[in-house]
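Annex B.
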Amino acid sequence: MRWSYKTVHYELKKEGLLGSAFLDESEMELSLNEYGRAGWELVSVIQTMDGIIAVFKQPLAGDSSALFHIDPIAEEEKSPPPVLEDFEVIDSGEELQEFNDEEDSSPDVGAIRIE
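DUF4177 domain-containing protein: predicted structure tokens.
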């Protein structure tokens, strides 16, 4: 299955200049519910220095496997087995012997001589 991902940053809010930072929970809850109704699934929440990052995912629009469960074993049973063509079997012993005879005709090629 293929997924589409979305990240949303919820920033901390401050009360005044020297006030403490806080997260508007009701605003975040409304936002999370909106994404859920739109088909996004919350998969992770990451705390940062200035807020929270929410990670959502949803199936890609063109991915039909998200809508229907496809059983790979059943799909294999439906498809016909591959057809193997008949091939002529050649005795490789004769060809190998011919190849070795050709190598013997030029003894200097590929030979290492230590004196």
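Strands lie at 3-11, 13-14, 21-22, 41-48, 51-59. The chain has two domains: 3-60, 72-104. Further annotation is deferred to the next reporting cycle.
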